[in-house]
Amino acid sequence: MQQIISFLLRNRYLLLFLLLEIVALILVIQNHSYHKSKIVSSSNAIVGNIYTKSSSIKDYFSLTIENQKLAEENAYLRNLLSIKNNSLDSLIQQVNDTIYHQEYNYIVAKVINNNYSNRNNHLTINKGHKHGIYKDMGVILPNGVMGVVKDVSSNFATIISILHEHSKINVGVKNSSHFGTMVWDGRTYEETQLLDFPRRASLKIGDTIITGGKSVLFPEGIPVGIIKDFKLRNNYYESINILLFADLSNVGFVYVVNNINKKEIEKLEQKLNE
Amino acid sequence: MNNPIINNILLFIGLLFFQILIFNNINLFGYLNPFPYIAYIILFPYRKERSLLLISSFLLGLSLDFFADSGGVHAASLLFIAYFRLTFVRLILRKFESEYISFQLNTISFDKLIFYFFILILIHHFLMFGLEYFDINAIWPIIKRTIFSSIFTLLIVTFGYYLFVNSKK
C-alpha cells in the first residue's frame, strides 16, 4: 500500500498530465465524428456573447462592402421579380414556380464568427432555437452554399462550413440532370471539389454548378460556382475543381433554410429503409 | 502588480483574448495564423511544483477550443509542451532543478532563448495541426502549415517578449 502511494506521489505530475491529455484526446476524437453532438462548441452563451461584441466592432470596418453586397442582392431580386411578372402568361411555369417557392422559408442570421483557414471550419451565427433554427438545416448565401447547422443553443448556432472534411453537398451541372457530391480537400477556401460525377455526363470548363434537388437541406438551383479544371483518366473524371462564386473569407449575413416538407420527406424515406 | 497569482491570471486572460479576437483572424495569404498564446508556457513561473501549470494550460487550451470549435486540439497540444517544458529547459538552456528558484529568462543569451522558443512552438504547432487534420495522408499540408505558422508565431512571441516582458527589468 505504502509503495503504491509513494509511486503515485513520485509520478504525480506524469499521472496528472496523462489524465488531462486523455481527456483532451477524447474531445479531439469526438470532434472528428460527425454524428455526435459536441461538448466543446462555440454555440454556448458565453462564447456567443463575446463573439457578438467583437463582431459589432468589426462591422464598422466592413460597412461599405456589406452595403455593396446588399445592393447587388437587391438588384438580383429585382431581376427575379421582373422575370416572374413577365412569365405570368405561361401557366405551367408559374405553377412550378409557386411549388418551388412554397417549399422553403428563410431565416436571416448574422455570422458572428467565421473560419476558413483551418482544415475543418465552423461558423457561429446569432440565431438559435428561439428563432426557429434546428440541427441539420441548410445555410446559404446570396451567391452560394455556406454549410449545415450543427449545434444549436437558445440564441446561437454553429454551422459546419462547406470547408469541412465531413461536408458533402449534392450538386449538379446547370441545364443537365447529372449530379455529384461537393467536398473540400482543405487546400484553398476559393475552391471545392466535385466527386462521384458520372463519366457519361459531359462536363466543360466554365460550366455552372448549382445545388441539386436530391438534398432536402437546400433548395434546388442555387448557383455555387463554375468548373475551374478537371482531369480525364480512362474516361473517368478526376479531381474536378469548382471555383466558388462566394467569397467565404468575407461573409456577413446568411440565410438558414427551413424546408417545410423536410419531415414528411424524411418520414417517407425512413419507411423505405425499414 | 507583483503578486505572481494575479500576474498569471492576467496573463491567462490577456493571451486568450488576444488570440481569439486578433490572432485567430489574421489569415495571412488566406490560411496562415500565428498562435502566440503559447507564450503562457514560456512565461509561467519556473518551479518544481508543476500541477498548477498543467491544469491552467489545459484550461487555456480548452477555452481556445471553445472559441475555435476545434474539440480538444489546443488543449492537447498546449498541455503537451507544458509537461515537457522542463525537459527543454534542461537540454537547451542547461538549467537544472536546483536552479529553478533563481532561474530567470532574461539571464539567458538571445540565440539560446530563441532556439528554446522555436522548439516549443514547433512541437506545439505540429501536434495541433496533426490533431486537427487527423489524417496520415495529409502529412504534407500538416508539415507545411507547421513550418510557416511556427515562423510567424516565433516572430510575434520574440517581438512581444523583448517589447513587453524583458524591457521591464
Concise summary:
The complex is a heterodimer of chains A (274) and B (169). Chain A has helices at 2-10, 12-32, 45-59, 63-86, 91-102, 262-273, and strands at residues 104-114, 122-125, 138-141, 144-152, 157-161, 169-173, 179-183, 191-195, 208-211, 223-233, 236-244, 253-259.
Explain what you see.
The complex is a heterodimer of chains A (274) and B (169). Chain A is α+β, with helices and mostly antiparallel strands. Chain A has two domains: 45-165 and 250-273, Beta Barrel (Thrombin, subunit H); 169-244, Thrombin, subunit H (Beta Barrel), CATH 2.40.10. Chain A contains six helices and twelve strands. Chain A has helices at residues 2-10, 12-32, 45-59, 63-86, 91-102, 262-273; strands at 104-114, 122-125, 138-141, 144-152, 157-161, 169-173, 179-183, 191-195, 208-211, 223-233, 236-244, 253-259. Chain A starts with a helix and ends with a helix. The model of chain B has no long low-confidence stretch (mean pLDDT 86). Chain B has helices spanning 4-21, 39-43, 51-68, 73-91, 110-133, 139-165. Chain B has one domain. The chains are: A alpha+beta (274), B mainly alpha (169). The A-B interface holds A 12-14, 16-17, 20-21, 23-32, 38, 40-42, 44, 47, 50-51, 54, 113, 115-120, 122, 124, 158, 165, 186-190, 249 and B 20-21, 24, 27, 30-33, 50-51, 54-55, 58, 61-62, 65-73, 75-76, 79-80, 83, 129, 131-135, 138, 141.
Rg from Cα of chain B: 16 Å
Helix content of chain A: 25-40%
- Residue stretches of chain A low in confidence (pLDDT < 50, at least 5 long) are 85-102
Give Rg of chain A in angstroms.
23 Å
Strand order of the largest sheet of chain A: 1-2-5-4-3-12
CATH topology of the largest domain in chain A: Thrombin, subunit H
Oligomer: heterodimer
Q: Most extensive interface: pair and counts? A: A-B, 43 and 37 residues
The CATH architecture name of the largest domain in chain A reads Beta Barrel
The assigned structural class of chain B equals: mainly alpha
Number of helices of chain A: 6
What's the count of strands of chain A? 12
Query: What structural class do helix, strand and pairing data of chain A support?
Result: alpha+beta
User: Element order, helices and strands of chain A?
Assistant: HHHHHEEEEEEEEEEEEH
The 3D shape of chain B can be described as globular
